[in-house]
Protein 1
Amino acid sequence: DENEETWLTGGKDRTQKNENRGSTVAEIERLAKQRDERRAQQDRVKKQKEMEKQIDPGNPNYQFLTMIRDYQVQIDYRPLRMTDAVADNKITVCVRKRPLNKREINKKEIEVVTVPNKDHLIVHQPQVKVDLTKYLENQKFRFDYAFDENAGNDMVYKFTAQPLVRTIFEQGNATCFAYGQTGSGKTHTMGGEFTGKNQNTAAGIYALAASDVFRLLSRDFKHLKLTVGCCFFEIYGGKVFDLLKNKSILRVLEDKNGQVQIVGLQEEQVMDDQEVLDVIRRGTDQRTAGTTSANANSSRSHAVFQIVLRKGLKQWGKFSLIDLAGNERGVDTAAADRQTRQEGAEINKSLLALKECIRAMSRNSSHVPFRASKLTLVLRDSFMGEKARTCMIAMISPGMGSCEHTLNTLRYADRVKELGADENGVS
Ligand code: ADP
Ligand code: MG
């Protein structure tokens, strides 16, 4: 790369290095950072060119595309990097933008989402005035982290679920939610990356978290002599189904002490990464089995994967990882048949309850409305106690056709943790 050579031996950098040998490490880091950023920028330009080739001026959205490009060229991109600091939050809310998929590219969809830096995201909402002039409404959002289409599951994990693993060894409850419309990447993130129909369960947040649990178990917390178990269940239409026990229906009981129990829930003892992968695979297969339209069904249920630490029989700490039902029904209230409408209402109710529970948790409120839905009832302990920590990853599809759903997802996430728009964060 000729450009890079010229740039690396540039006079200014060399003088700085000679002047102060002590700052060499910082200097190398700074250069690496600049190089990463430049590469990301080059990737982006290349992708944009490829995309523009596909979209001819006859495309009705061509004007919007050029307006978005005009906006983007003014941005100074500074994407999140693996080496960036990980914050220590009680509640973390972040957003992940997936790349356009083949189907969207074939339909010549245009991307309407830009991630300029590590914690901001912009939606370029296409609008048309009464006189038919087209314009963009550029809406900015800020979260704890913003993952762009180049971020892999390893990076998402590092900033979301990984910082929560220690919590369960310290007798707390950790919880991580994947929220978003169907097709936005929830299962890809939690269950493992897809290559076509094949899912690599080892490259998902369930498995990555379990792997770190084993690491800490045999290292920093060896003296505690804890054991590890896994549960995997689904909540569908307000009922709990055990994914490790042929989807048998389970009852949820709240005892006199306020403890919530799922009666008869299977808990598999696991000794290593391989055994966890087996459990994930079994549960995932159950989740999508037995329906004519497997995808449609799984998009209407919340899947809960739990890693339970025990000392003897006593529960020590619990990590709940949840692949939530698609949130798109929050808008489509005019669904066709009665059952679908009811399902939609149930999902709405649980997602609203979830938001309220996390908000109550962030205020340290003694009143957490966890009884408002089955989802929040079974996750009661996730919202209670000093040591509880939670993280939500809002997933979004980048295409223009998903714009409304994307904005709904972002507004929801914004309400879960109100960080406020930072006007200075985006150039
Ligand atoms: P959801 O569970 O939210 O309905 P999926 O996880 O099933 O969505 O993702 C829908 C499709 O998009 C899958 O084919 C998946 O492989 C792809 N996908 C999702 N997120 C990403 C990503 N970050 N990178 C590449 N492909 C992705
Ligand atoms: Mg899914």
Protein 2
Amino acid sequence: MRVAFLGLGIMGQAMAANLAKAGHEVTVWNRTPGKQIEGARTAATAAEAAQGVEVVWLCVSDTAAVESVLFGESGAEQSLTEGMIVADSSTISPSATRKFAERLARRGVQYVDSPVTGSKTGAESGTLLFILGGEEQTIEKLKPLYAAMGKKIFRMGEVGKGQSAKLVMNLQIALIYEGFAEALTLGAKLGVDAENLMPLIQASMVRSGVVEYKAPFVLGRDFAANFPLKLMSKDIRLALEAGKEARVKLPGLETVGEIYEMAIEDGHAELDYAATLLLLEKWAGVEVKGQAA
Ligand code: NA7
């Protein structure tokens, strides 16, 4: 298929590369020029990238970025014509998503919110999970593209529901990880080594995908971003906003959200969200020790 891929960050770069590898005709664009993808053409603006394609795919930081890439100066909207599809793999506000989709529908353009879960490793290995909101017939057309970038799709309902479900997922990831990080910190303070704790966690009902994925990085003290702390913080804010709109109180998430804000103030924004541990360690005056598996 002819695809414009807009946004070549950690996730977008790997996703666009997998589309090109699968033989799709890909044109890429990134706000900051200089990024290229093997096998893809590079455009100077989002509008230029979107010219004559069947699908415009976005993967940028936040709601404001999506709005600007679609509707800003030299935005993709200028090149959108009836029958085209816009798919957005950024994690953004569900209510803004519905507004963007309504605006594009007036041009006969279909919209599928397509946020992902799986982080950088999932994007690189083409094993992302896509969480979708949109019409079934539109999703059907996009299946070859989802297959090139991921291992499974989950349709959650109409436009906006993909983003809602994604926020619900990241709420859990943030809270599960924070539980793990607090347990490691208290363990360290009480003299229980992470190395001894890990086999116990794995053998018990405490084990989880989040812990399994994060433990080797944490024990190896590798806090380089797989999923940047600033982006998880953004998702926590989005979930709290969605909760506020729906009159749902989220006390655990509120507290964890504050920890993320303090971690950002401590200069950890660009590190992985696993780096919230550094703050807990600082407060407790300990360092978690253990060996990477
Ligand atoms: P990164 O690696 O931080 O990349 C963010 C991308 O978004 C990058 O290409 C940025 O371009 C782009 N960006 C940010 N703001 C804008 C604006 N205003 N206009 C155009 N482009 C912009 O994030 P990830 O790849 O890890 O994640 C992307 C999304 O997937 C995010 O929503 C996650 O929560 C899930 P730049 O290179 O800075 O010019």
